[in-house]
Fold each of these.
Amino acid sequence: MDNQGGALQLLKVPETRQRILVTLGLLLAYRLGFQVPIPGMNPAFLKEAAQGLSQSWFGLMNAFSGGDIGRTSVFSLGIMPYISASIIFSMLAKVSPKIEAIAKEGASGQKRINQWTRLIAVPIALVQAAFVYTGVFLQNTEMIAESIGPGLALLAVVTLSLTAGAMFCMWIGELITEYGIGNGASLIIMAGICTDIPPALAQMIGGPDFYDTVVYLVGLWLTIVVVIVYITKGTRRIPIQYARLTRGRRVYGGQRHYLPLKINMAGVMPIVFASIVFVLPSVLFAAFKLRWLESVFNDRQGFVHIMSQVTLIFAFCFFWNRLMFQPDQIANDLRERGSFIPGIRPGQKTAEFLDHTLTRITVVGAAFLAVLSVLPGFVTASTPLSPAMAYFLGGTSVLIVVGVAMDIVDKLNAQLVMRNYEGFMGPGGNGGGAGWTTKK
């Protein structure tokens, strides 16, 4: 069965068809929320200010928020507070024994952590909304309506409006996760990225060397997608041998499995952390009127900017991988289960082997993410593109979009295979993803 037949069979399944429609409807409601303005704001001036900030750190933060801080909308923060809270609890689950024990309790423990994540997202949204007010609105007072002016009243209106919008986006994301297809937060981020592309393409129409630019962009985009898919799917498979147990004439165990280590194990998390750290120097230089330092630091083709970004990404890659994959714990778990790596002595030698393998994989993954992070600056320098298009083609946004798309295809393919269809991959295809569970 070809891909078209698989898609048709997919639409014939009532549950799958309902989930697709629910996902599309919720994403439409999410985008319609951007038409609800914050009281007292001047949309025209704020949009211009956001476009100016896109030259430095704004575009990347805007992409990860899944929203559009450049619009005077209650959904401007998007899903960023919820993502920040999720990252915090992901790290706490690795460093706090109590939270780690709760996370291992199964569905009940995950439910408690999800509830705590929602609660923590509220103060994070308040802080981020206040940061948007002080870092964006107060720096451009002409964007504020004359009837209200800057002050405590405006601060309260902005923070409460943005916080309420962020909580509504979080609710939409959870509805998509439960009743739709894929991860709701990831889909919201992807929707925020993709909706900026049509306006950017419209600005290019009629420009100089339009057709040559389109051919260049399509070729660059396809190349980036192929590389991202290759790296994302790439794994280092470590063989795991189970010890044999003989009872009478029967032999138990002895099977061989594999421990897969992804090349890009950290995903986009190092870029998220690096972008957050990058905000601080820009804000400090602007606050103390150090224009020359600000210009040097924000020069995307400059040595200082590139080396700072690459250094941060490498540091956060090692930090995140060490946090999420602990060789000593894996080695102890293998020894307790009677498993071992062929040719490696159980215990400390296994931990050292895993640590050495993790280091080599992290170097490759960090180099891959570093290239993606610095690519937008070179794309903008070589081609007259808008900041939105440059960030989309730069690699980071493509990494998010491709990752979410691959996750959706894996889930849909798993549903087709489960219902005795061949799926998108054809006979023997392996989607590699789990489907969803029908609620009873």
Amino acid sequence: MIRVAVAADAAVVRAGLAALVAASPDLTVVGHPVSLAELPQLLEELQPEVVLVDLEDDADDAVLDWLPGLVPSPIEGEGVPAVSLVILTEETAGSWMAEVLRSGVRALLPRTATAGEITAAITAAAGALVAIHPDLLGAMLCALPGQPRPPTEAPEQPLTPREVEVLSMLAEGLGNKTIARRLQISEHTVKFHIGSIFGKLEATSRTEAVTLGVRRGLIML
């Protein structure tokens, strides 16, 4: 039996995920489902093999920052970390997804993933495999350095007016907080727009996105 801890901020989501895990004959829930804030303190006590984490679309940016560091780096000669993280997320910024995978997170799935997809990801993570849902894979690959890309042509998916606004502000050198304040949206939503821009323009950095936007006449400097 694979020992699984469940973490989510919404009580109804915690209950649902715990029931989903408990319904699988190969998985067992350890302890009680906890909030994200409680997870770091209770992780040692629970001693799970896999932690299933739900990230809401308005998850605090601080959570996005410390979550990858929750998984200890493998000790030399001991193989993979003792705890594997499976994340359900609406975060689509390829750079963030690539970073969490490099840090030791084992699986990334959208929050709309099916029960079968979630249990399969947990099983894979427990076996030291990496699982990435197809819906998230494209944006993540675009963020990896050194990935060959076709010559820059007009984007297949045009940027939305809001994405053009965000791209223009990136060209001004503005940070996420300033952009969020100007547009009166959350920083997480800004990150979502930036991830979408990167995917549509096949860019791997803000500078590259701005350069491609200028070349394609989307924005002016």
Amino acid sequence: MVRLLARLLALLGLAIGASAAARAEATSADHLALELVAEHTALVAGAPNWLGLRLAHEPEWHTYWINAGDTGLATKLEWTLPAGWQAGAIDWPAPQRLQIGDLYNFGYSGEIVLPVAVEVPAAAAGSTASLRVLANWLVCKEECIPGKAELSLSLPVVAGGSATGDAAAAGLLRRALAQRPQRLDAANAHYRMDGDSVVVEISGAGLPAAAGLDVFARQPQVLANAPARIEAADGGLRIVAPRSEYFTAAPAQLDLALVRRDGDSVTAWQVTAKPQSAAAATPAAAGTGLTATGVAGGSDIGTWFALLLALLGGAALNLMPCVFPVLSLKALNLVESLHSPAAARRDGLAYLAGTVAGFVALAAALLALRGAGQNLGWGFQMQSPVLVAALAYLMVALGLNLSGAFVLGARLGGVGQSLTEGSGARAAFFTGLLACIVATPCTAPFMGPAVGYALTQPPALALAIFAALGLGLALPIVALSFLPLLARFLPRPGAWMNTFKQLMAWPLYLTAVWLVWVLMRQAGADGTALVLLGLVVLIGALLLHGSFQLRAPSWPRRLATALLLLLALSPLAVLQPQAESTSAQGKLWTAWSAQGLDALRREGKPVLVNMTAAWCITCLANERVALSSEAFARQLQRDGIAYLKGDWTSQDAAITTYLAGFGRNSVPLYVLYPRGGGAPEVLPQLLTPHLVADALARAAAGSSAPPVQRSSP
């Protein structure tokens, strides 16, 4: 009898020890008890094992979910594990909505376990592992207390299938895992901006009923934290939630947790909503603006409408000053080739191929970089000081060629020999490429919505929209090439062409000066001085090459020219961007920041935001025409309008994110926030003094332009 009792006591001790091994000793903190628990009494090698941080809150106290809501901080875990082990992120159970006065927080009260999957290598079987976690939390009632504690757990590691469960710990973990939002794979969800609201529409099989549902966004500062309206609509669900007052950018996807609570029972679903449209519904007519609704969300503009906008935007680029130097080169080709219809058509198609290839190549590079995690927008290549300097070199070289300092080819067209030997098509192709490169700093009407839409679409469709931009840019030249009747309006070739060619060199020189000015903003005085020195050497090399062309070719002359060219290009190898050196405040404006804008909006002040760049000629033209006059300054001061300017000359991720929030991936962008809050108004990309004055008056009065409705093209 004594022996039997001893054996029973030993077995009971083993059971108690095994259970204790699956749960570490609880740690007490202010208004909170913490405990590290494991699903089994031993870890299983070669498989994921569920562990969890158990939080037991005192009544009326709470900690926070991954999105804490209006105030608070999410609980964080930092694991210390044996080599080769891996701990995942917290697999958050569905949160509660916790109201404190006018504030809404998301988190947990009572008892909750935050589960984490830990991967144990197969080679660890037979060992004993010590697991440690550093927990950081914020526990709140009306006041908040931050806390930190290190918890540890020592468990044996066994081969698969031989672990036994700890009923209490396994029950806690099973309950937490059951409260995780389960993905609705069959659901199709999209969201859009509708004034000051975010509308999410969900369709598909297996959707929960709308009654009793609550919704939580994993991303902060998209939805306001007050309860949303959830209703059945068109066989699915529609969620209408107030937009966060701190909203700055529409996310690429909106992750939502739909939660139903029935006493202690919690059921939750996870839905991922894509933006219905990241582009504006329609371009603004002259004298009107677009509201943020039309730009950041609104109705889906559709593929065909985006292609039409891209075509029109590309054609409008021909009117932009940044394209004029290249058009001057192409004008010389047209004068010569339009009197030969076959050559004219060939040149036109080659020019078209160049513009389309240029836009598609730039778009492919942009999509690849964005896919790799770079936060870039259209015109990104002009944010590289090396490329800006290289373009300045190119403009000077082309200008010297037109001035007669040296000859690239035997005919006026440029690269190669005569048109009859095929060089005209090559020259036209590379002229098209050059037109594409220098056109990207400009943003023409119709172009912004098309580019914004393209960058939210699959790669093939995005590239097609950028190809339409190239087609639009080439359209006037192609039309001239294929319509022989237009030749009668052009002068006949003659001696005047040499004078015309020399005159056309000056826009190229002026473009080079502008590029050097842009470079000074990007690379500073030292970098600019190096490039200017390189330009002097380049001019000398090309003048020397021109003098050698009048003599018999020889290898010493070629070597001398090549060495000078290498010396001229050497500054490009050491050119580095520097931090923006412009003043944080001008006479009229203050440097933009998301925090500064939020502070002004909380004060209820009207705000004008100007997103610009030194390489954006459209931006500079707008500032000269409409944003620098005495009347503009007086109106800002009289009406108490804050003027914020964001400089995108060099890459700035915060500005890129702000642009994306309005469906844009390029500058200029002009946004007016009215007095007292309300939906912001997006102004057209080409400004006039009258248009700006009217918009400022609306903002000062606390109103904005009505949304522009799109009609199908």
